[in-house]
Design brief:
- The chain has 814 residues and is of the alpha+beta class.
- Helix content is 28%, strand content 25%.
- The strands form eleven sheets. A ten-stranded antiparallel sheet has the order 1-2-9-10-11-12-19-16-15-14, with helices on one face.
- Helix 14 (589-597) runs antiparallel to helix 15 and helix 17 (672-682) runs antiparallel to helix 19 (724-736).
- It is globular, with a radius of gyration of 28 Å.
- It starts with a strand and ends with a strand.
- The chain binds beta-D-glucopyranose and 1-deoxynojirimycin.
- Beta-D-glucopyranose binds at residues 487-488, 640, 649-650.
Length: 814
Amino acid sequence: MKFGYFDDSNREYVITQPDTPLPWINYLGCQAYFGIISNTAGGYSFYRDARLRRLTRYRYNNVPMDFGGRYIYLRDHESSQFWSPSWQPTRNNLENYRCRHGLGYTIIGSAYQGIEAETLYFVPLDENLEIWQLTVTNRRATTAQISAFASIEFCLWDAQDDATNFQRNFNTGEVQVEKGVIYHKTEYRERRCHFAYFACSRPTVGFDTQREAFLGPYRGWDNPVAVEAGQLTNSIAHGWSPMGAHQVKLTLAPGQSDQIIFVLGYHENPPDEKFDPPRSQTIDKKHVRPVIAKYLDCSQAGAAFDRLHRYWDGLLGIFQVDTPCVHTNRMVNIWNAYQCMATFNMSRSASLYESGIGRGLGFRDSNQDLLGFVHMVPSRARERILDLAATQLPTGGAYHQYQPLTKRGNNDIGSGFNDDPLWLIVGVSAYLKETGDWSILDEPVPYDNQPGSETPLYEHLQRSLRYTLNRLGPHGLPLIGRADWNDCLNLNCFSDTPGQSFQTTTNKDGKVAESVFIAALFVQAGSELASIAALRGLATEADRYLAEIAQMDAAVREHGWDGEWFLRAYDDAGAKIGSQQCDEGKIFIESQGFCTLAGIGLEDGLAEKALDSTRKYLATEHGIVVQQPPYSRYYLNLGEISSYPPGYKENASIFCHVNPWVMIGEARLGRGDYAFDYYARINPSKREEISETHRCEPYVYAQTIAGKDAPTFGEAKNSWLTGTAAWNYYAISQWILGIRTTLDGLCIAPAIPKQWRGFKATREFRGVVYRIAIERSGEGNRIALTVDGLPIAGNIVYPPADGRKEVNVRGILT
Ligand code: BGC
Ligand code: NOJ
């Protein structure tokens, strides 16, 4: 069953039924001002940091679900009836309801009793504001007298405090209303220099800023008393809950349309220009007024919307494919790339499953996100890399997270996740391969943000590798620390107290538990660094890395192989995890995926065996589960992984983030059919048909799909912010379609299904456009390439020596 359809030519997903199984959201903004918006206009906005600079309120995990939003009400003054054209909050029986989620914008429209209304929501590039452009059309045979109300509820900035510290917060709220603009200025009197505003393009007949005046006591957003009465009350908030509502009256002749723009924004004044006059408490508006005026103008708003379109044309144009599979084309060309932008921007902070207050930017997460983002805006990738590296500790270790606003490592979670530092090498390597910008390696970057501690970025990478080598366990495998990629495999935390953190309550000395996954990551990151060192002319260093990698590879073969597959880990007692010998959790995906991705066992059949076992024991119709059998009870020595009931999250769900590692392993083995088959199983567009089972958005990946041991097998959760976005994008584009960036050129090495006759692609790479056509002439994945008609040796296309900006590449697979 479907709840809408893909409109590929407009790059939109069109939802045609408002009561989707879960709110299906989109992101507004892609630079500093952001919002999430659901298909019924739920969601909230923030500036940079969803916790510390939250502009509007949202009520997570509430009933009914998805409350708090950018709500518009229309009221017919003849009948006194009112409704929301976005369905929520009033939930009337609308006609022609549709929500078009597009790239950086959402349009929600419907008709009710002959009145058609549509609102376009978007954030203009380079601005800290959002535009709601409402068009109302009278389809009746008679003139209509309509009031349009637009409303939001302000958050008192720190979303955590806002939801908990009521004894203070019910007293601090302040607003100012001037020339039809509502300014929210709570705490502006003291240490804040920023405020929010809510403006309207038309003369208003009323406003409200006190929530209780607008809603009425004991009422909700579905039935505001002021809308019911047909007249806002011009209330001024003092304490309690400041909000913003505008009322505009429209007289519409039959067939007539009218348009209103509402602008919600954030502004920061210089500290010495907070007030005007200086000793007053009145906000100085000289800087913000022109911005507001600009976007209340329809033609300016229209121009900003066109610019946003062109921006996305440019970003998506960097890589476009034309394959025999519509789901592949759609995801690669539009939605997966788009999701990569959102995950890059948000890391794991703000979605419907991440409350925006829990986690900052993850060190390992952000580095992995680069894999899917770096080609789009390399300059922002560069900045992110330098920010991440600046939180690295002098030991080479890393804070697990940092706050986007302060860019400081977050002490709550601390460090000691022993895979973290290696991801920095993976991220930097992806950047170098994309851009060839070697200057980044010489950038001075501090440790733990301490001025004076700067070394070139390159040394950060050296220390990352050393960090692992300095922490090897009894089998010569890396010690796991608090956890590795699997945050829930907590081998040094024996927690028997409810509520204790599984990761940070460390009560073992950490000298025994080892991770085969980190060993594989070390092999991968180490060989990336060895190639970088070699190209930097550091041959001895490169050789040393190769020797260390060989040693790690040997340790994996000797102590990390279980006969049919790779082991997962050793626990604190030195017992095996992910082994035939275990009662539960006999085989895990992470080590099968990452060992083969890293090339361990490619030559001697171990990789093939491991992937065959993966197919046999872990693959399901909905994707590959984390492990089998799942843990049926809580294990003190394993931690959070066994806290989930079987089939969910790290306890044997289909963790979509790690499925691509297996795809890449299969591609490395040249088994294109298997690689693509796994790709298709979790492709959201392919799963659109089973939306009633999948339940999450069909246009983006979710973190998990309930595994076969769960009663809800096939149900997705935690959509949008997940490493799944970058890894699937990377797997399909660089390994299955095989258009792969390397340090010195573009490698073309597809591993596609036998049935495909070929495919076409366009790839902009370091300023050159490569038009690639692949044709199949045999069943295998051996490739012969011609560049502009001339055959070349090998599978790497180097940038043209004569400065040509367009190159035609043809590849024949045999
Ligand atoms: C989740 C993990 C996540 C971790 C972050 C756990 O509860 O299951 O997926 O990485 O929290 O701290
Ligand atoms: C989600 C976290 O964000 C990520 O860092 C982790 O690797 C996975 N969960 C697996 O636990």
